[in-house]
Write a structure and sequence with these properties.
By secondary structure, the chain is mainly α. Helices cover about 65% and strands about 5% of the residues.
């Protein structure tokens, strides 16, 4: 089915902007901030920032960027633009094609633009998070994991079953396990063929299979399942939610300092210790040993998760609420604390951004090593 992506490469090449990366300046921050920034700026549709992040990250990490692009495509774009997902997988897994079409840096910059401009859906992320971790599904995970592959595939095909039940079954049957491990007696090809038989487009099935093998991330298998659910809705629509205003320091938006970065965690801890409302809310609802985790997750949902363009389908809001609930429960927040904690963070996002800026500037002042990383990286980044 790899041939199904040939047309995706052709479509992608037609979207190229000649010489675009000539005017891009790298950003000064470590690779973890750049990884975060690439993903969050794509979520927000911020094309120029996403391209600067891709330019910088390629200088820092080289070919590792291609796996990151595939994860972003499935996690943040998904069913809102299967076309962009297919183009991402096609470009990210064919170095020969990249060489013939301007080189790796050119393709990385172009791909960042395509993903930033595409409509978004995080439904696959909410689905895999819930299927893997929600406490109410613990028995379902145990039973499905112990069932035969035939029964697992039958559960994937069961169209009146819940999405989470089908997600658990698909992951178990595929061999792409909860932690990326290869499961015995599993068959990814059979899962892909099941998707095909249910009507998932060939190109999306092909992209899913390639990405599942390359990334070993079970989220890849969620996109076809969400596609099936979303296409049962007669009126899926694209909306443009308002996203929080970003504070920017030397070109780096502070929303990139989130729970996935050392600087972000440090900033959130400082903020939680300085801000009265956040302190009071955490003390009221969250055990002392889990308050940092709760604050990290609240900050993520406040300004790292929002999408600037978003696909809405019949059950999307319910799935998002279930995924958010799962994340907050895992962070030590009881149900009665969900709304107060998220409100406290959003009410004081300006304060958090000021703390982030202080932490980032302090890091930059002491971080000569970051400059040397970029200097070394530029030597392998042609500008044409």
């Amino acid at each position: 089915m790899d041939d199904a992506l040939a047309e995706a490469k052709t479509r992608f090449s037609k979207k190229f902007v000649p010489g675009q990366n000539l005017d891009i300046e790298p950003l000064i921050a470590d690779q973890w901030v750049m990884i975060s920034l690439l993903q969050k700026s794509i979520r927000r549709g911020e094309v120029a920032t996403a391209q600067r992040a891709a330019f910088t990250l390629f200088a820092q990490k080289g070919s590792a960027i291609w796996r990151r692009f595939m994860v972003i495509a499935f996690e943040d774009v998904g069913v809102a633009s299967p076309d962009a997902v297919a183009m991402t997988v096609a470009a990210s897994t064919d170095p020969s094609w990249r060489r013939k079409n301007g080189g790796d840096l050119h393709i990385a910059v172009q791909l960042a633009r395509v993903l930033a401009q595409a409509p978004k859906s995080r439904s696959a992320e909410h689905l895999i998070t819930s299927a893997q971790h929600h406490p109410s599904l613990a028995k379902a995970r145990m039973l499905r994991g112990a069932s035969s592959r035939t029964d697992q595939l039958a559960a994937v095909m069961k169209q009146n079953a819940s999405l989470t039940e089908r997600a658990i079954a698909a992951s178990c049957a595929s061999g792409v396990g909860w932690n990326g491990e290869k499961r015995e007696h599993s068959d990814l090809a059979a899962v892909l063929e099941t998707f095909h038989g249910l009507g998932v487009p060939d190109e999306l099935v092909a992209a899913t299979g390639i990405a599942a093998r390359k990334t070993r991330e079970p989220i890849t298998l969620m996109v076809p399942l969400v596609w099936l659910a979303a296409n049962c809705d007669s009126y899926p629509t694209i909306i443009e939610p308002e996203v929080p205003v970003a504070k920017i320091v030397d070109g780096v938006p502070m929303y990139s300092l989130d729970k996935h970065t050392r600087l972000g965690r440090e900033a959130v801890r400082r903020f939680a210790s300085e801000n009265d409302e956040m302190q009071e809310t955490l003390a009221r609802y969250v055990p002392a040993a889990r308050r940092n985790d709760a604050a990290y997750m609240a900050a993520f949902y406040a300004d790292a998760a929002p999408l600037a363009t978003k696909l809405v389908w019949k059950d999307a809001d319910e799935l998002e609420a279930f995924g958010t609930e799962t994340d907050l429960l895992l962070s030590g927040v009881p149900p009665e604390g969900f709304a107060p904690l998220l409100a406290a963070l959003r009410n004081n996002l300006g304060h958090l951004n000021e703390v982030r800026a202080r932490v980032f500037v302090q890091y930059r002042s002491a971080g000569a090593g970051v400059h040397s990383i970029l200097a070394a990286g530029r030597s392998r980044c042609p500008t044409s």
